[in-house]
Design a protein that fits this description.
Layout (H helix, E strand, L loop, with lengths): L1 E7 L6 H16 L3 E4 H7 L8 E7 L4 H18 L4 E4 L10 E6 L13 H16 L2 E4 L2 H11 L6 E3 L13 H11 L5 E6 L4 H18 L4 E6 L6 H8 L7 E3 L5 H10 L2 E4 L8 H8 L4 E4 L2 H7 L5 E3 L4 H13 L1 H14 L5 H12 L2
Parallel strand pairs: 1-3, 1-4, 2-3, 4-5, 5-6, 6-7, 8-9, 8-11, 9-10, 11-12, 12-13
Length: about 375
């Protein structure tokens, strides 16, 4: 079977698309699929002789007119030329084609128009009703998102399903001596909170620093804050902001952690502080759950669904004051932290990557 996967260029906000793409490459390789890039295929004039192919097609999503051209004209032409059997649409829009298409609904943000939407988000919003009709099946990241989409477009519940965020086996609880080693490498042998944010998200960065300041003023200790970027590194603007921060010596921006180091950092943290950029910003939470690391985050339906009852501290009141207060309460209550770790480890059983991956691949091949 030949499967095309539709991506958009220069996008850093569709976490679900990036996650699905990674899963696809891993599963396709395990099932002896040839993984190809459309631009490279075109440049090298690759005849694509393989029977089973996963073809990644990256659209230059720089404006509505160009997106319309690609989805209405260019993509159908590519599908025909390379005898594509099935298409996976990762950005909430189906192409104008008669071949089988699976639509991925990447965030509930697409259900209501907002002026600050990017070009691809506006495009997806306008076409979403049609796309859900054209698609053979619709996949999304949570039961909450599934329900809202079904209600918005009166979809049959059998037409939609959930493929949740999961992480691989690198993310796991660590023994105390392994945690000591990680703390010695990254946190000067001190306890630390950890957070994962977009490398240019100054708002989330500022919110975290303010909450950490409130905690430090109360605690007067050596606790540190380690920040990981979702992309390769943090922006210069964030680094400049940190230079003027009162507790800058206790904040570490870790730009170059590899996959194993990232997993170890999450597992060794005192807690994960999660300021979600969108409803679908859930991958750091699943990483923490699987690592038995307590989670502090602002409440959302999808987060509550992932964490379950007592699996995290979900804060109803937004803002750094509330987050800072909860950091203090968690630090004062070691019993609560232990309970959160135990519940997180149990909750992680719901999000076993291998199990969801096998089901997803079976779904693709039916």
């Amino acid at each position: 079977m030949r499967i095309a996967v539709i991506h958009h260029s220069n996008d850093t906000v569709n976490d679900y698309a990036a996650y699905i793409s990674t899963l696809l490459d891993h599963t396709a390789a395990e099932n002896n699929y040839a993984i190809k890039d459309y631009d490279l295929v075109r440049f090298t004039k690759d005849p694509l002789t393989e029977e089973n192919i996963l073809l990644h097609i990256i659209i230059p999503a720089i404006g509505g007119f160009l997106l319309k051209y690609w989805y209405n004209v260019k993509l159908p032409s590519i599908f025909k030329k390379y005898a594509i059997d099935k298409t996976l649409c990762l950005y909430g829009s189906c192409a104008s084609s008669g071949i089988e298409q699976i639509l991925f609904f990447p965030d509930i943000y697409l259900l209501q128009y907002a002026k600050k939407m990017s070009s691809w988000q506006q495009f997806a919003f306008k076409r979403l009703k049609k796309s859900t009709t054209v698609a053979k099946h619709v996949i999304t990241y949570s039961q909450h998102a599934k329900k809202l989409l079904e209600e918005a477009y009166t979809l049959d519940t059998k037409k939609t399903s959930v493929l949740p965020y999961t992480v691989n086996e690198l993310f796991k609880p660590l023994e105390w001596h392994d945690k000591l080693y990680i703390k010695s490498r990254f946190a000067e042998n001190k306890e630390y909170f950890i957070a994962v944010i977009h490398g240019d998200d100054e708002k989330a960065f500022t919110e975290l620093l303010k909450a950490f300041s409130k905690f430090k003023k109360w605690q007067q200790s050596s606790m540190q804050l380690i920040l990981l970027p979702k992309e390769e590194s943090f922006s210069s603007a964030i680094e400049e902001k940190l230079d003027t921060y009162k507790y800058k010596d206790d904040v570490k921006l870790v730009n170059d952690a590899d996959k194993k180091e990232t997993a170890d950092l999450v597992a060794s943290a005192y807690a994960l502080l999660h300021i979600a950029a969108t409803d679908a910003d859930l991958l750091p939470v699943t990483a923490a759950l699987q690592s038995a690391t307590p989670v502090l985050a602002f409440y959302s339906e999808s987060l509550n669904e992932y964490c379950g009852d007592s699996g995290a501290i979900l804060i109803n009141e937004p803002g750094y004051e509330a987050l800072g207060n909860e950091l203090i309460q968690l630090y004062k209550n070691e019993t609560l932290r232990g309970t959160l770790s135990e519940v997180a480890a149990k909750r992680a059983n719901v999000f076993q990557q291998k199990q969801h991956l096998e089901h997803f691949w079976q779904q693709l091949n039916t």
